[in-house]
Amino acid sequence: MPEQERQLAIKNMVCARCVRVVKEELEKLGLTVQEIELGEATVSGNATREQIKTALAEAGFELLEDKKARLIEQIKNYIIRLIQDPENRTANYSDLIAKHLNKDYHYLSQLFSATENVTIEKYIILQKIERVKEWLVYDELSLSEMAYKLGYSSVAHLSSQFKQVTGFTPTAFKNLKNHNRQALDEVGQE
Predict the structure, then answer these.
(1) Which of these three, 101, 121, 141, is where a domain ends?
(2) Which residue(s) pair with 33 in the sheet?
(3) How buried is residue 175: exposed, middle or buried, by Cβ count under 10 Å (0-12/13-18/19+)?
(4) What is the CATH number of the domain that holds 160?
(5) Is residue 79 within 8 Å of residue 93, measured between CB atoms?
(6) How many domains, the chain?
(7) Helix axis angle, 93-101 relative to 67-84, nearest 10°?
(8) Which of 113, 146, 116, 132 is nearest to 174 (CA)?
(9) Which of 14, 31, 48, 101 has the fewest CB atoms within 10 Å of its CB?
């Protein structure tokens, strides 16, 4: 049977470590990984879809087969990438997402909200707050540096949004013993 190249969409693949683990799992199946990034891998080889699905599930990932589920995962992964490495601090997220996925933002927004029970805007805020929690725990940046990096208009705006989401001011959160951080793939889930 000739080797076929195929595109895989993978849920819960939200960080560099996830990319490495998925690559290792696919290679254990004898697949050649041509390209891999958050949520996606291009592979060739003769492993069956069921073998791939099982190997990924055992490592905590999920092979996505439904087109809408794949699109939702692409939105999430792109948002995570934007928040983790904020190059376009002042850019409009809706424009960036629509352009990246080459789809109408209104359609993406409705699909996301219906599927995830949270709006894209709220998901972005939740991801930003998780990033701030990380910075606070590791004492990496000042609040003004955080606000700047994440595109907030002011420290007050960041602090207000942080308190709205967590119930704590950034300073109070920093002083907690248990920081209640969430895995990035669980942000927005209740």
Answers:
(1) 121
(2) 43
(3) exposed
(4) 1.10.10
(5) yes
(6) 3
(7) 130
(8) 132
(9) 48
